[in-house]
Structure formats: structure tokens, C-alpha cells
Amino acid sequence: PLALGLYTVNAVYGDTITMPCRLEVPDGLMFGKWKYEMPNGSPVFIAFRSSTKKNVQYDDVPDYKDRLSLSENYTLSIKNARISDEKRFVCMLVTEDDVSEEPTIVKVFKQPSQPEILHQADFLETEKLQMLGECVARDSYPEGNVTWYKNGRLLQPVEEVVVINLQKIVDKSTGLFTMTSSLQYMPTKEDANAKFSCIVTYYGPSGQKTIQSEPVVFDVHYPTEKVTIQVLSQSSTIKEGDNITLKCSGNGNPPPQEFLFYIPGEAEGIRSSDTYVMADVRRNATGEYKCSLTDKSMMDSTTITVHYLDLQLTPSGEVTKQIGEALPVSCTISSSRNATVFWIKDNTRMQTSPSFSSLQYQDAGNYICETTLQEVEGLKKRKTLKLIVEGKPQIKMTKKTNTNKMSKTIVCHVEGFPKPAVQWTVTGSGSIINKAKETKYVNGKFSSKIVIAPEENVTLTCIAENQLERTVTSLNVSAISIPEYDEPEDRNDDNSEKVNDQAKLIVGIVVGLLLAALVAGVVYWLYVKKSKTASKHVDKDLGNIEENKKLEENNHKSET
Fold first, then answer.
1. What average pLDDT score do residues 339-363 get?
2. Choices 1.25.40.20, 1.20.1250.20, 3.20.20.150, 2.60.40.10: CATH for 116-221
3. CATH architecture of 309-389
């Protein structure tokens, strides 16, 4: 490289400077010398080498003591390059007749340290010009330049917004420069999380280069412009008994630490931190909630609905009624939304609500009225009615001759609650018959059955007794050898009553009886018309019928 037409050697600070003598060695060379020129042009000789004696001498120059080396081809080397080595050096070759000279310019370069941003502001405030920090790059040669960047973009000076001041200080002992650039900056809210950095531009042996500092992010303070209120809840809905946590926040930095909360029913705001807790809320907590800054400058609101569910069952608890009585039942619901209501009896869901115009034993049981709000998790209410249907014992006795014609089955059909105790007695001895068999007690009904083979006419008595009453009914049973009309056994013995089947059976019996009576009437009329001679026998039969009627009336009185 050439500087002003002269040969130039570029050296790095601290390295070795190598300067070849760019002259051709002439014939008759006596010696070679190196010198440098002072600023005023006066020469200072620093090295000598004889071509004949091959010896080297270095002049007593303090700046170059123990730093010089002159080779046989007259190349001069200077160790540990300094800024002060930046001079004009001259190689001289001397013969008897001539002195030849060739100058060399030495340029020394020093890379600065990585720039650092020092004296950083603790935070920045919007709408305020303040010192952001100082970018310092040390020990540069020649001097460098410092520029500032925000998010990778160059910051240009803007009055009252971006103010940059660059200072360059040289160390007199080393000749190295330290560059310090201060940045005053007026931030905006958008500068939150912005990355600020600085770059030093310097020259090296190979040209211009740059070094960048580590980026720095500043906490930007700005006032609150908006207040927001939130309801913190684990569920999307709130019900009675829940806790409500209100949170108020401002979008400033730093965020406000205190707020005023306005609660329904409270005239003045309640001063609190950014959260306000209400425990075990009731339905009267439903309403509009607000919060504001302590100076009431900004406000936000939200509406809270506290869901509730009330259930009133009438009657409820344990209720005892008599069979045949009416019992109105009502399940009244009051809720914040439409509720679903259903009934359960003895763990089985009912299709309709219970209604009792005439209580029967099968109506007894445990009734549950339950209601829920499907949209509100966990909001469910239920109440229970334990219905007890009591009744005095009712008895109906039937008899039936068994198919073997050797015995008869007597059944005592009993209704009542609490369950009656049944005893059997026989006419004469009055002894208790213990061989009776009972069916299962269901819906207040059961039957007690005995099998007998009477050798003579007997009267059986069935006694049913509970806490309400003692009932006694008797039935005359003929000896097994005496023919009589057996009474059919009540088909309810199995206690599996089917209302529809009973109705059909009753209708069938009535129709059958009517048809039988009609046929009997027609036959009787024909018989009377054709057999006048049989009138005496008819009179006799009618007399027997009268006797039988009297006998049945006596038996009925005895049974009663």
C-alpha cells in the first residue's frame, strides 16, 4: 500500500512491525542504516549494519531499546508495535560514491474493546427526556465512532426526543482513544421490551469494521389508561355459598396496587388491593360490581348473578295417614333459572307427581322431590316425605274343597297396617290352630291359610289384630261328607294384584250371572207352562227355599 505515493506498512498494535529495505543492494556497499524522521524533519538513527564486518549496531534510542532487529538483507523489525511507532522510516545504503534512501510509512491500528452500556437508567418514563445510558468503547486507534440502535434500527438525533453526545478521550501514555456516547431519550409506551444497543465503528489494517454491544431492555413506566374488573372463579357460574374473588387491574406500568371496589348496596367504594373477596355469598349479592383507581379517574364494571334454588315440600318428613284419606302433596320450586323437578319413590323414578285422593296401602313409601339447575354445577336440592298408611284390620274368609275331596282349604284374607297378627280358633274348644301358613305381606295385604278335613260341621274364626283394632270374622264349614257350595279362593293371595285383570274378571262374572239368570228364567217359564201337575212339588220346593233362606240368615247373624 502507498500513502502519498510512499510505501506504507500497516501494523497491529502490539504485533511486530516488519519493514523491508526496498533498495537494490549496490556493488561496493559499505553499510546500511535505518533512521526515522522527527516531526521537525530532523533524523534519528536507530540501526547500523556493516556489509564487510557483518556486525549490527543499534543506536541508543530509549523508545526502541531491545525492540529492533536488522536482518542481513537490511529488513528492519520492531517488536511490540506502539502508537508512537507511527512514523516515516528511511532505509539508507551507503557506498564510497553514493548514498541511496527509500522511505517507508508505518501505520498502527488498535481494535477497541466491545462497547458497553454503562450508567443505565433504572427505568424510563414516558413523556420525559432522560439519560438512558452511556456507550463506552475503550483503547481504539485511530479513534472510532459510536452510534445507537433501537431494535436494530439506527437512532437519529431528534430535538427533545433523541439527544446523543459523543466524547473522545486519548490516553497520553498510550495514545489510545476511549469513545463515550451518551443517549438521552424520551420513550413511549411502545418502547416496553425494546432492545437498545450501540455500535463502535473503527479502522483496522484491512479497512473499516464494527463491534456491537450487548442489547439492553429497559423497564418503561407509563400511566394507566384503562381499568379492568374480573371475576375469578373455578366455575363459569356462581351459586349461593360460593366465594367470589374480584380482581381489578390497570394497564399502566407499574400496575396500580390499590383500587376502589363498589359493591351493590354500598354507597361508597371500598379501598382494597387489586383483589377483593366475598365469602359465602347469598342471592342478594346479585348485581353490578365496579372498580376504579383510587382517584376515581377510571372505572370498569361487571354483572354477577348468584344462582339459587329453593325447594318446599308439603308435607315433608314422616307423615302417618289412614287408608282412604286424601293427602294433597306439593313440591314448590323457587330458582334463579328454570329448574328440573322429578320424583323418586323407594329409589325408583316416578313418571308423574304423586297425588292421593284416597290413600291405599301401596301408596306408603319414601318419596323424594329433587330439583337441579343443569347450568349450575353442584346446585341440587331434595326433600323427603316418608308416608305411612295405617288401617284397621279388614278380614274376608273363603273356603274351597280341594280336588281330592278329602280336605278343605280355608283362607283368611287380611288387610291392615301395621301388619295384623292372625289367630285361628275352632268352635267348641276355642283352641288356637298353629298350622296356618301366611303369604308375603305386601302393600298392607296378606293371607293366612289352613287345610282341614272336618268330620262334622264346624265354625272357624279368624282374628286379626294390630295397634289400631282387633277384628274377628267366623265362617261355617260343613263336614267333608256333607255337600255344600264352596267359595272360590281370593286370587289376591299371591299379593300380586293386577287392576286391569280384576276389572276384566268382575265384568266377566257380572255378564255371566246376567246370562245365567236369563236362561234360568226362560227354562223356569217353560217348565211352569208345561207341567201344571208339578205345582205341589213346586210349593214344596219353595218351602225348602224359605227354610234355606232362614238358615242362611241365621248363619249370617252368627258370622257377624
1. 93
2. 2.60.40.10
3. Sandwich (2.60)
